[in-house]
Amino acid sequence: MAQLDTAWDQHPEPLTVASAPAPQYGSGSLADLLPTLAAGLGVPDMSASITELTPADRNCVFLIDGLGWEQLRAHPEDAPFMTSLLATSRGGTGRPLTAGYPATTATSLASVGTGLPPGAHGLPGYTVRNPDTGELMNQLRWQPWSPPGAWQPYPTVFQLAHAAGVHAAQVSSPTFENTPLTKVALSGGTFLGRLSGEDRVDLAAEQLAAGDRSLVYTYYAEVDGAGHRYGVDSDTWRGQLMYADRLVQRLAEQLPPRSALYVTADHGMIDVPFDEQHRIDFDEDWELSAGVALLGGEGRARHVYAVPGAANDVLTCWREVLGEQFWMASRDEAIAAGWFGPRIDERVYGRIGDVVAAARDDVLLIASEREPKESAMVGNHGSMTPAEQLVPLLEVRS
User: Fold this and answer.
1) What is the bridge-based pairing of β-strands 136-138 and 127-129?
2) Three-class SS of residue 366?
């Protein structure tokens, strides 16, 4: 972590693109997790990039939405079981993974399921421009609808594992079974919908035992929901963390022989105060909105799409206004810095903003008129700070 800590401790004014701590694609990011597990199961063409992990015959990934590394470490009394596992993280190194940029659910789930960075799988933000239509597309809700297979054409790791004879299964809310995001990110093998957390972890343990080689995924969302609505130190959030901790312990106690359970998350979260200093409103700022055709992303990880010919002027203006609080880059600068991974597919290039803005400080670029619900959230995420970017990889083996 030394090289990461150094990058995060630097506060150049104004911020430079090079000072942003790009995710550890290829060695320690969420996109590397399933390929590493699948390689250990003998799935062809998979690479064990997280070298600290030891192969197991049966592997379960339990993803707790919104449970960042820093939030877990800050609340040991609310999550005693997971806290006891912190030293196991990342193969016993005690280190976290990086989520990927932006640190947001649609992007991270696609990285987990496909084993690819955002620049390849093509879900590089909460909302991004569809180059074919010119519209903003919400990639979490898949609105407006776009053909999923064209938007994200790569097979998932679950599909590849199933084809290689591995028992693959996902245990999640029934609500997610037929969503386009599930189709492009997490499909393959068997989807099993269960409403309660207890039912999900019980069934995940059964699915692990159902094959000599197994790859099982399960998911819990409400830690994230509580953080967005009430903040990451609220009583409601702490209650959800306590519940998630009990679910992890319940699953760990049911592992069949030759199993490895990995507990991780899609991103962390920070609370942003409700005042004009911390919440800058794009919809009320004529200077920031000048030359902007579309505002994408989310409050801490913005894609800014300029009107034709205005991209350089928009970048200059945004750097002058926000450059001491946000890492600011042109599309090509962000790509060259590796924010979205080592390569960018041609179909993905135009989805990335002409200007990419990633918050360093505890600030939010809201849009009160066009994004009223998002602008009212207490907890937020998306950028490359440790609170948002670092996620655990806790391990229990049987």
Assistant:
1) antiparallel
2) strand
**C-alpha pair distances (Å), 172 with each of 55, 101, 219, 378:** 24, 24, 6, 26
Burial string for 263-285 (b: 16+ CB within 10 Å, else e) reads bbbbbbbbbbeeeeeebbebeee
Q: What's the CA angle centered on 141, arms 331 and 368, to 5 degrees?
A: 70
With left for phi above 0 and alpha for psi between -120 and 50, is residue 221 left, alpha or beta? alpha
pLDDT computed for residue 4 by the predictor:
52
How many Å apart are CA 120 and CA 320, to the nearest integer? Answer: 31
CB 108 within 8 A of CB 135: no
Burial class (CB in 10 A: 0-12, 13-18, 19+), 257: exposed
Handedness of CA 114, 119, 120, 125 (dihedral sign): positive
Q: Mind giving me the DSSP string for 47-112?
A: ---STTPPP-SEEEEEEETT--HHHHHT-TTT-HHHHHTGGGHHHHT---EE--SS-SHHHHHHHH
Query: What pLDDT sits at residue 9?
Result: 52
Whether cis (ω within 30° of 0) applies to the bond prior to 144 is yes
Q: Is 162 helix (H, G, I), strand (E, B) or coil?
A: helix
Helical H segments across the chain, by residue range: 2-9, 33-40, 69-73, 80-84, 89-92, 105-114, 118-121, 148-151, 157-163, 180-185, 197-209, 222-230, 235-252, 286-289, 311-322, 331-336, 346-349, 372-375, 386-389
Closest CA to 102 of 352, 367, 321: 352
Q: Is the whole model's pTM more than 0.90, yes or no? A: yes
Q: How far apart are CA 111 and CA 127, in angstroms?
A: 16
Whole-angstrom CA distances from 3 to 19, 91, 322, 391 are: 12, 19, 26, 17
Q: Is the peptide bond before 14 cis (omega within 30 degrees of 0)?
A: yes
- pLDDT digits over 326-337, tens only? 999 999 999 999
Query: C-alpha angle with apex 113: 108 to 169, nearest 5 degrees?
Result: 130
Q: What is the pLDDT of residue 380?
A: 98
